[in-house]
Amino acid sequence: MENGVHLNTVLLNGVHYTCGMPRPESTAAYARNSRDDVIEAALGILDQQGLPDLTMRHLAATLGIQPSGLYWHFPNKQALLAAVSDRIIAGARSVDTTGRSWQQRVQAEATALRDALLAFKDGAEVVSSTLALGLGAEGLHRRLTGAIDAGGFDEETSELAAATMVHFIVGHAFHEQQRIQADSLGAVAHAHTLDREDPAEATDRPGAFDFGITLLIAGLERQGTHVPADPASAGSQ
Amino acid sequence: MENGVHLNTVLLNGVHYTCGMPRPESTAAYARNSRDDVIEAALGILDQQGLPDLTMRHLAATLGIQPSGLYWHFPNKQALLAAVSDRIIAGARSVDTTGRSWQQRVQAEATALRDALLAFKDGAEVVSSTLALGLGAEGLHRRLTGAIDAGGFDEETSELAAATMVHFIVGHAFHEQQRIQADSLGAVAHAHTLDREDPAEATDRPGAFDFGITLLIAGLERQGTHVPADPASAGSQ
DNA sequence: ACCTGAACACCGTTCAAGT
DNA sequence: ACCTGAACACCGTTCAAGT
What we know:
Two copies of one chain form a homodimer. The first copy, chain A, is elongated, with a radius of gyration of 23 Å. The first copy, chain A, has helices at residues 9-13, 35-49, 56-63, 77-90, 102-119, 123-132, 139-149, 155-186, 199-203, 208-223. Residues 1-24, 191-203 and 226-237 of chain A have low confidence and may be disordered. Chain A contains ten helices and no strands. The first copy, chain A, starts with 8 loop residues before the first helix and ends in a 14-residue tail after the last helix. In chain A, helix 5 packs antiparallel against helix 7 (139-149) and helix 8 (155-186) packs antiparallel against helix 10. The first copy, chain A, has three domains: 1-32, no CATH class; 33-74, Orthogonal Bundle (Arc Repressor Mutant, subunit A); 92-189 and 197-229, Tetracycline Repressor, domain 2 (Orthogonal Bundle). Chain A is mostly helical. The first copy, chain A, binds a DNA duplex through loops.
């Protein structure tokens, strides 16, 4: 793959790499990517090839640098994925609040966040791993708590309900994205092998997402503002 | 690692490997594991080392065979993990149904399933990936739909509600397990760096799980038996 | 400030062959 | 029935050094 032409090293040897100068006509021996360039390239690979192909080596090749060069921008791959996650979440469209009930607002926020996860291939999986690890992607929580707060619940209720919704939103999107991929891969292969009774198949009917969110909102409406901590729960022990 | 002593190949050369015979005193040149042995060993590694150490090579070494030997038992690693997932779910304790409301039953089933996920290190992550992929772990769905059905809901409602709960249960357990691990690793390191305001930290207070399940049950109680398909939902388009 | 070059210590999977 | 041996095509990460 190396092109045999001689590099312009003679020119480069005389450069004073005055550090402050931003992108000096890009006459450099290597790519000189910014941290943002790296994230953008990662999002590109993610969307067009998927998470399995988002390797440090592949990403580096896309940027025209060596794999080790990435470690100047990020301490490790997890940190890179956290930055990618934040970008995916930040891409969620903003919701028009004016004149809407808190229920409508929660529905709209949840849908916007789900759409953001679905906008990138394997987006839900990336965000899932990132927020399980406790890195980034707090935008999910923030927007949902904000919407629920409008219902006048106490802070604890809002946060717990938001956390419940986050798990559902991400889990549902993850599941749906995998199903899309499985369908596109095995569409022809399994086309006439359809003796369908798989319970996982029942989940993907349209409206499953809206149903879940509606269920949680209905739960909040019924609970009111009190936190259920009574021993009547048939719970853990 | 190879011990220099001579193998008992002389004895082995005379063997008629009559295929039906089960475990013939185990006088064999190699380990002769059953498929079940492999799953058991995988569960052992998972529980004591965690998912990152559950590699085909490590697993093979534990069983005393070559990595390639595993591919006689399973077509690939995903299939192995699916079998491991099924085992984890099957380990959920059974719930005493007698004289309990459907709400209590749902709570108990959900708790039993969560406990099963938490019983093995990284159990939630393994099950999460498996059921996202659409392989196995349907035990989760089955038990929850069974419990919800007792509330007299129509089949569609039961299944959608169960799917919602599955996402919450797995997501919550995943999150909690990662937090446990992060705490155990960085307990000393971050002990006096605690200027806490992380919203993810607010999630892990005890009762967050019960809250989520209670919220979903309350939602079901309010929804009754009708499926919300009216255009009043502030949903996706 | 941003990257190279080279190495280290790994992966999952295939396949012919052995017993 | 259950596994070996050897190979293929990869991984993430470190670190001294270069410009």
